[in-house]
Amino acid sequence: MLAAMARNHLVGLLLGTEEDWPSAFETMMRRLSPTISYEGTDHTFSTERITIEPFDLRAVPRYSLVIDRLAHWYYVPREWLKKVALMNDVYLMNNPFTFQSMEKHAAYAAMIRLGLKVPETWLIPYKKPPDNPRFPYTAAKYNQPFELDRVAEQIGYPLFMKPFDGGAWVGVTRIKDPDELHRRYDESGERLMHLQASVEGFDVFARSLSIGAETMVMRYDPSQPIHGRYQVEHGFLPPETGREVVTIGRLVNAFFLWEFNSCETLVKDGEVFPIDYANACPDVSLTSLHYYFPWAIKSLIKWSMFCAVTDRPMQIEMTMKRYFEVGDRDDLSYEEKLEHYAGLADQHFQSAQYHEFLEKHLPEIDDVMVEYVASDEFDRLLVETVRSTFPPHEHDKFIAHYQGLLSLWVSDQATAPV
Ligand SMILES: Nc1ncnc2c1ncn2[C@@H]1O[C@H](COP(=O)(O)OP(=O)(O)OP(=O)(O)O)[C@@H](O)[C@H]1O
Ligand SMILES: [Mg+2]
To answer: 267, 272, 349, 397 — which has fewest CB within 10 A?
Structure first.
């Protein structure tokens, strides 16, 4: 018999200030260190943090896959990501092309066409126009005067003003009357803004985090400080609504080719309203996700290994038409369209192959994750993370708080695994 071929996959981490999830990811990769025999080749893995330096466009990168947390604000790595996607077929989480060109605005537009219940949304021109010598002439000739109050009246109060791209709640305000509207518009300056109808009195805020083929729906309370927003609560949505929320998240990701993203939906009287679903660098910090942190680390590892070993192609071209063909059909109800989208998303994320791959090649990952989270090694990471996140007088309180949540996760794995 011929000896199996061997292939090592280097997983690159492109990081900013975060230390918690990368350490957990690296440690889990080391603790797992599987050799996966797949189609005659033995696959092994290593990780490396990517450094920023000049690069030759013709240089061949050593990475099979890169998890990017930096390119949404730092353009040196962003251009490097585009080069390695275009020239070297490196698998990227996320696709730098569509996350650069498709922001919240594009996501609203596409999802409206697909029939999702996006609240009434308008784009309004800048308060302070772009600083360009061509602007005065162009504006004088083509800009229509408009009355902000008339737009707001059509949407109705209260409404939200928020940047057309944006993130981290920057520049987002809830506006209750015309006075406030004008004040906020004046403050918006050079930022291009949406006005969006507020979903008032919603029953549940569901935030889903998607990593490759997996989606976790969590109850979210935006009124809490960041460490208290994700609620540890299971079964907070009826199963059908839960499926609807999952499908919406997966649809957005499959449509835009995003693989590491979060999606916010408001559930009111059984209806699901998506309000925000383009987050190129979703929050996966230990202090935000706490109980759900092990799930995120596991999912990142599973998806990375699946993509690397099976040589899943890094898709650059969007296939919008397949989705619009469903969305444009008048003979389908909202529910029927969602069913089609769920199928398209499963196809895009190779859901069946992914789960088969995990069963066959990574059956130990759940146990290894539990062992790690229960270990002193994880506890040290938790303590360091709390110390670098909170002021000294809160350390003891928060260390105990997070230790409690993570040991709850460990004990839940025996009965209700997440
Ligand atoms: N249409 C809406 N109806 C009700 N609440 C809304 C609406 N739009 C935004 N909000 C509230 O404002 C918050 C911030 O809005 P949004 O998520 O669109 O901005 P963001 O900058 O992406 O914030 P983040 O990064 O925290 O997700 C939401 O989490 C929600 O609490
Ligand atoms: Mg948001």
So the answer is: 397
